[in-house]
Write a structure and sequence with these properties.
The chain is mostly helical and about 150 residues long. The chain is built from seven helices and no strands. Helix 5 packs antiparallel against helix 6.
Amino acid sequence: MDARLDHAMRASDHDRDTTLARLATGYAEGRLDRSEYDERATRAATASMLGELAELTADLPAGRPPEATVAATRAERDRRDLREWLQEWRYWLGGAVILTGVWGTRCVLKGELIAYWPIVPLGIWAAVLIAIAVWPRGDADDEHER
């Protein structure tokens, strides 16, 4: 079909949604500033012809296929979750050092070894961190990305 005829065709809701998604991606990637995104999104929502929509995204790169976007988003989320989980273990290690220091100081002041009481809070904290890693993720997270 002739490209000129395509631009003269009326736009569907799906066409407007696709254009809005490309604009949102361009904004998220830093290709558009907030005011430009708002202006283009408003124009996209009210566009009636495919040509109007094409003008709004002409200077943006073509989007990735939805499957690749979902897979990339899921991989990014998994990497972010892993970084956050490892950061929590760093906090745990810091807590272990502090609690062990308190315990060691108490042992020195008493002149005898006392029971290693930091094992209780550290064990509970570690159990929570392990449960976070093994507990299945809710489906709401996956549906939210679609």
